[in-house]
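INFO  loader      accepted 1 record
INFO  loader      residues=177
INFO  predictor   begin
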Amino acid sequence: MRKLKRSTSTAVLVATLTGTAALATAAPASAADYRCTTSSASVDDPAYSGPVTDNYNFKVTLCAKRVSGVIYAYAHTSWDGPVWFVNQTDVLDAARFHLQIKKSASGPDPVVKYKNSYGIEYKLEHGNTAGNSSYTTPVLKYTAGSGRYLADGNIQLDWNNDGKSYRTTLFSASPTA
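INFO  predictor   done
INFO  writer      dumping tokens
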């Protein structure tokens, strides 16, 4: 068996490459974890007063994080819905998730950026066979100044045949980032 001669430069090169690989696979220090809050609400179809349950039982998780002066926010919503709403496109006229990034302040927190996500309507109307589903908003980004920021949001449902526009259901905001 032939013995390989190991030079100092080869050992340094291997050590350098090994160290580089370890650095490349490590999570960057600036990639902070999202800070999240989960809250729930039950929403009743105001146009229906029959004997069968018609509530959407929502669970919403609002999350925010700061990375190098940029605030990232998103919302994840899941629900248990009425089985008889599945594939019924006449229950809602419209639905959206209203996601906001707010600057934490004494008194009401001012909204610095918001986005309405309309993809939730299709998911509400086309849940699984038990009436359940979920929806995650696209990530909202805001270049922030000094201070603390948070994610806030609400679900807005425009029920069919109720004679009104959007009805808003509020949820708990994320911790500040």
